[in-house]
Design brief:
Length: 762
């Protein structure tokens, strides 16, 4: 067994240093080389025979179903640390051998929805609820949040991530971290960094310019580290400019620790990298879930003089610093009884602010004077709470749209319900039977084609109902990227949409589309057909209730897009260099086999900093829905913009007034256009944002926003410096990236801050 020699070399002696009763340095000095190597390598995973494939969770004696554990050293008083997934809520086993109780967790909204609230205070509240479950179920570190950039709409993990913009990503993640860690448990921000695709995720080399690295792909992590102090950071699977991220010292030490001041622990993603000695040398402290090979690599490298024991000691020290922070080390008596009822209410209400109203022609929504509702679409009956893989949550229930509408007082036509559910169960069984059994528990089952109503069924439904709701669903999950057919509506969805809208419109009745999706889908070709479109995302276990709260007008929608909806998939600049529709062999770790496509080994980020709205604005390209877009049941007026420089801080403010008839919230987005300078610049870039309180009709609020002058800087590769160009900056108060409501100007002096010249393309 890994580390067995280390654990039996020394008997417990009264004079031995003991963690918590003596200094950490004393404990490190008392450890043997073998004990040190054992401590920085996790406990392994149950069922693993080759060090790569396994069933998640080898912590059955601690917290069954948790993702990983550090190794205890009893003679030195070192307790284990329990690490558990994931971004939408704690993921542990709901049942335990010999125990009649159930241990469900709350499935909160997915990352895209949380970010779409543009409300850090709300996100922090969600994090507080998550953290309470982590602590009361005996875990120590939640392996979340995930905040990589939405580089392309097809990235399979976009549902866990937040935005195409690093400011939104960083502010959202920082709020999440503060909320979770308010319970004295830790987080692990991930995946550090450049994890923007799932295809060959453990082998792909992301080739990125230093400017794009600094301005786009690392900026969100920097914001999170500086504004929330996460306990740990998780490195990603991929390489960056030729080196695995977990083995890249310039990323893990030079930038993360030296430049940003991060003082916590860095761990690998599960089985990430290929050389544990190089990971230790880089400053990656902990290998998870841990293998015998990694232990041997570290011990052998130290003995051979290829790895400094001083570097190993630094990693050991950081592991011990993590241990002493944990509830388990402090002897916390966890209850196994978090307040799931209260948290269900949190997930229901938090989802309301992240749902985005994309269309509302003729005031179709909210549904006033409507009693009888016809529902269409398989997903109306089988609502998708969230993603699979490490983002899944073992919950007690998921409220479907049908159930939510009924709970909201509507009479729902369920005449086709039994047939649809039976059909979906049969199709799901066929799809699951095709999967490798080792993957079946992790992968989402594709949605089957829509079970279309017959003309006679549709006629009967039309006669009895006031309005039609069509739900279009998309599954989410890690291990694979989405395909272009998944981005577009399939033929059965298009036919269903046309059948229903034609029939209901001829009868003078309205049609609403609900998008129960985890990421961007094509909307341009069909958005003219329905009367209203609600982007509900994947709203967690209370999803059907949350959607109904919006449809009924219990709350006015206030979500805004944190990514651009392009007209066509290939309009996104990254699509030229993204593995679209490649047939790559799938395995637990998604490693490429020799028969795979050659071009999945390298991904060139040739678009540089022009990701999302930066690209579309630079090209003056038409989009279906712009970044920052979202409708409300009311309307807002902006007035009296002001901006001033106070020391090193830009302070801006604007008055927002509700000029509609119902209460609502507005997201004020502050964009900046730079003067012409030494570098090519985006048309505008988001620098700050704020959400109003719920404003009654006719009420106004003064919204204040701020950011640092240094946030105006662009990264000059030639000088390896952050450069703020002198000149007049255009400050834009906006309701979306293409809806500028007010402007102000600000004169700024130039400045330059040099940083390490690292992570260059080799």
């Amino acid at each position: 067994m890994l580390g067995a020699a280390a654990l039996t070399l020394s008997s417990c002696q009264p004079k031995d240093p003991y963690l918590g009763k003596t200094s950490i340095d004393s404990v490190v000095q008392a450890m043997t080389l073998e004990e040190k190597a054992a401590l920085v390598v996790g406990m392994g995973m149950e069922g693993s025979t080759d060090g790569q494939t396994a069933t998640v969770g080898s912590t059955k004696n601690l917290v069954p179903g948790a993702a990983g554990t550090t190794r205890p050293l009893e003679r030195l008083g070192v307790t284990p640390v329990v690490l558990a997934d994931g971004p939408a809520g704690l993921r542990i086993d709901p049942t335990r051998e010999g125990d009649p109780a159930t241990y469900y967790c709350t499935h909160f909204p997915i990352g895209t929805l949380l970010a779409s609230t543009w409300n850090p205070d709300l996100i922090e509240q969600v994090g507080q609820s998550m953290g309470q479950e982590v602590k009361e179920y005996g875990a120590d570190v939640l392996l979340a949040p995930a905040l990589n950039i939405h580089r392309n709409p097809l990235n399979g993990r976009n549902f866990e991530y937040y935005s195409e913009d690093p400011v939104v990503s960083g502010k959202t993640a920082a709020a999440y971290v503060r909320g979770v860690q308010s319970n004295d448990v830790g987080t692990s921000i991930k995946h550090f960094a450049f994890n923007n695709q799932e295809t060959n995720r453990t082998g792909v080399d992301a080739v990125i310019s230093p400017r794009a690295i600094r301005e786009i792909y690392l900026k969100g992590f920097e914001i999170t580290v500086k504004e929330s102090d996460p306990w740990t950071v998780m490195t990603s699977y991929n390489k960056i400019n030729g080196t695995y991220t977990s083995q890249e010292k310039d990323l893990v030490t030079t930038i993360l620790r030296d430049e940003w001041g991060f003082g916590g622990l860095v761990m690998t993603d599960w089985y990430g990298g290929d050389n544990a000695a190089e990971q230790i040398a880089a400053g990656n402290d902990l290998m998870e879930p841990g293998t015998d090979l990694q232990y041997k690599q570290i011990v052998d490298a130290v003995k051979a003089g290829k790895l400094s024991e001083k570097d190993l000691d630094a990693c050991v020290r950081r592991v011990l610093e993590l241990v002493v922070r944990t509830p388990r080390f402090k002897g916390y008596a966890y209850s196994n009884k978090p307040d799931l009822k209260a948290h269900a209410e949190v997930t229901r209400t938090s989802a309301l602010e992240g749902m985005v109203l994309l269309k509302n022609e003729g005031g179709t929504l909210p549904l006033k004077g409507v009693k009888n509702v016809a529902v269409f679409g398989n997903t109306s009956y089988d609502f998708i709470a969230g993603g699979t893989g490490s983002g899944n949550v073992n919950r007690a229930y998921t409220v479907s749209l049908i159930e939510g509408l009924r709970n909201g007082g509507f009479t729902v036509d369920d005449s086709r319900g039994k047939a649809v559910l039976n059909y979906m169960a049969d199709e799901a069984g066929k799809e699951r039977a095709k999967l490798d059994p080792s993957l079946a528990a992790f992968l989402p089952i594709p949605r089957p084609a829509e079970l279309l109503p017959t003309p006679a069924e549709l006629s009967g439904i039309l006669a009895k109902n006031d309005v039609a709701i069509i739900t279009i669903g998309r599954t989410s999950g890690e291990f694979f990227d989405r395909t272009s057919p998944d981005f577009n509506l399939n033929p059965s969805e298009r036919k269903l949409l046309t059948m229903v809208t034609d029939a209901f419109h001829k009868a003078g009745k309205k049609v609403i589309v609900v998008l129960n999706v985890g990421g961007v889908v094509e909307t341009s070709s069909w958005k003219g057909q329905p009367d209203a479109i609600l982007l509900a995302w994947q709203a967690g276990q209370e999803g059907g209730n949350s959607v109904t709260d919006i449809l009924s007008g219990k709350k006015s929608p206030s979500g805004k897009l944190t990514m651009t909806f392009p007209v066509n998939l290939m309009d996104a600049a990254s699509s030229e260099n993204f593995p679209i529709d490649l047939d790559v062999p799938l395995s637990f770790m998604n490693r490429r086999t020799p028969s795979g496509e050659k071009d999945v080994d390298i991904c060139k980020y040739e678009e540089g900093i022009y990701v999302g709205y930066r690209w579309f604005d630079k090209q003056n390209m038409e989009v279906s829905y712009p970044f920052g877009y979202g409708l409300s049941y009311t309307a807002f007026e902006y007035s009296e913009p002001k901006v001033a420089l106070e020391g090193n801080t830009v302070k801006a403010s604007v008055t927002v007034k509700n000029i509609g008839e119902v209460p609502g919230k507005e997201v004020v987005q502050l964009y900046v256009s730079a003067p012409e300078g030494t570098l090519d610049k985006p048309v505008r870039e988001l620098r700050a944002y704020a959400k109003t309180s719920e404003l009654p009709a006719g009420q106004a609020e003064r919204v204040e926003l701020s950011f640092k002058v240094e946030d105006l800087a662009s990264f000059d590769e030639a000088q390896s410096a952050w450069v703020v160009d002198a000149g007049t900056y255009d400050i834009q108060f906006a309701s979306s990236s293409r809806d500028i409501r007010q402007r102000a100007s600000l004169d700024v002096k130039g400045s330059k801050k040099k940083v390490a010249n690292v992570l260059n393309i080799k």
